[in-house]
């Protein structure tokens, strides 16, 4: 059994590579630049004051949480259509990263809401739909990790993954469809023009770059780890079957 496990992971003692190390360094520099522009160089907002700085993390995190959900839905659809294990692992890795970013969105939103609305939480349409998105992601991950047959749990998880994009659309459009406390889109007001400009707008773009680099770095590593986990599971199953057959031959 040990031999088969070693063969499955031969030459793979890390999920890192030269490319991911470069990406990681860029992500660190991006986060440093975000801290500099977001906390030091950018001015406070005329109406929100210093609390506007939370948006430099909140808005990019929400965007990349949506991207992670889209990747999970696409990967799930491709897996159910063609049975591609590669796409299934993309969906799985994306769901984990999207879960982390959605949690960051909720936490930063609550921190922003306390001085703005006077409370950390209200059952606002945007907040409620985002919470439902987080629960759906957690449900996907829970089903994906059930102690059941691999094919059964991956197919059931993929079906849940198909529901993520419709939920993202509801989250994204909630401020347009219902009366909410949540402000309208930060970059566009009624579809035309920017609501923030100058150094504040540049700081937000730095946030998108920094958070995007972190998202990409995490996604690549999580995908590689998921692939290694699958290889170990397959090798362990093959070894167990071979051992059982050997016991039968001896008897």
Automatic annotation (TrEMBL):
Q: Does the keyword Transmembrane helix apply?
A: yes
The portions of this protein that span the membrane are 22-42, 62-82, 89-113, 125-146, 158-178, 198-220
> GO CC annotations?
plasma membrane
State what protein this is by name.
Unannotated protein
Q: Which InterPro entries match?
A: Cyt_c_assembly, Cyt_c_biogenesis_CcmC, Cyt_c_biogenesis_CcsA/CcmC
Note the topology in the membrane.
Multi-pass membrane protein
Can you supply a Gene Ontology BP term from the record?
cytochrome complex assembly
Q: Mind telling me which Pfam families this protein's record contains?
A: Cytochrom_C_asm (PF01578)
Which compartments is it annotated to reside in? Membrane
Protein family membership: Belongs to the CcmC/CycZ/HelC family.
Q: Which PANTHER family match?
A: CYTOCHROME B_B6 PROTEIN-RELATED, HEME EXPORTER PROTEIN C
Cite the Cytochrome c assembly protein domain residue spans from the record. Answer: 24-182
Q: Which GO terms describe its molecular function?
A: heme binding; heme transmembrane transporter activity
Q: Per UniProt, which keywords does this protein have?
A: Cytochrome c-type biogenesis, Membrane, Transmembrane, Transmembrane helix
Main localization of the protein described in the UniProt heading: membrane
């Amino acid at each position: 059994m040990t031999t088969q496990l070693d063969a499955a992971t031969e030459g793979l003692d890390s999920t890192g590579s030269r490319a991911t190390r470069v990406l990681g360094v860029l992500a660190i520099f991006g986060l440093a630049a975000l801290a500099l522009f977001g906390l030091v160089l950018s001015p406070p907002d005329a109406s929100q004051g210093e609390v506007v700085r939370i948006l430099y993390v909140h808005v990019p995190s929400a965007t990349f949480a949506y991207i992670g959900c889209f990747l999970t839905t696409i990967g799930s659809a491709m897996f159910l259509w063609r049975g591609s294990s590669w796409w299934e692992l993309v969906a799985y890795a994306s769901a984990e990263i999207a879960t982390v970013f959605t949690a960051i969105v909720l936490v930063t939103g609550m921190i922003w809401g306390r001085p703005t609305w006077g409370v950390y939480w209200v059952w606002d349409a945007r907040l409620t739909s985002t919470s439902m998105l987080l629960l759906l992601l957690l449900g996907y991950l829970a089903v994906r990790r059930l102690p059941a047959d691999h094919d059964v749990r991956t197919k059931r998880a993929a079906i849940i993954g198909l529901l993520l994009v419709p939920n993202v659309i509801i989250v994204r459009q909630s401020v347009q469809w219902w009366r909410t406390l949540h402000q309208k889109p930060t970059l566009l007001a009624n579809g035309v023009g920017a609501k923030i400009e100058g150094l504040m707008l540049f700081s937000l773009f730095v946030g998108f770059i920094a958070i995007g680099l972190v998202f990409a770095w995490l996604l690549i590593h999580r995908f590689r780890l998921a692939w290694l986990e699958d290889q170990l599971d397959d090798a362990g199953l093959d070894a167990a079957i071979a051992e059982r057959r050997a016991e039968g031959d001896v008897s």
